[in-house]
Design a protein that fits this description.
With 88 residues, this protein is mainly beta. It has one domain: Immunoglobulin-like. Helix content is 11%, strand content 55%. It has a six-stranded antiparallel β-sheet, with no helix packed on it. Pfam families: YabP. This is YabP/YqfC family sporulation protein.
Length: 88
């Protein structure tokens, strides 16, 4: 399988197209976490919605007000971060 390129296109903080998405891990109207070709990606904001379903090249469209885009190098990074915050 050919490795997908990761590409992010943000338009007016209201529409984000993400390429190279392998899996959407979780989402609600404030946070979307996905596993991409280069690791985890977390999108934070308000009224977030996952629009277009995965296309053949792994592209996802997100709409809403986008406040943050956070990259993590490993798939377990968010779980580790969450657990470490609980035990502080």
């Amino acid at each position: 399988m050919e490795k997908s390129l990761q590409k992010l296109t943000l338009t007016d903080r209201r529409k984000l197209e993400v390429g190279g998405v392998l899996e959407i891990i979780s989402y609600n109207d404030e946070n979307i976490t996905m596993y991409t070709a280069l690791g985890n990606l977390r999108i934070g904001g308000e009224n977030l919605e996952v629009g277009a379903a995965f296309s053949e090249n792994g592209t996802v469209e997100i709409t809403g007000y986008i406040r943050t885009i956070h990259f993590c190098d490993n798939k377990s990074g968010y779980a580790d971060n969450f657990i470490s915050r609980i035990f502080r």
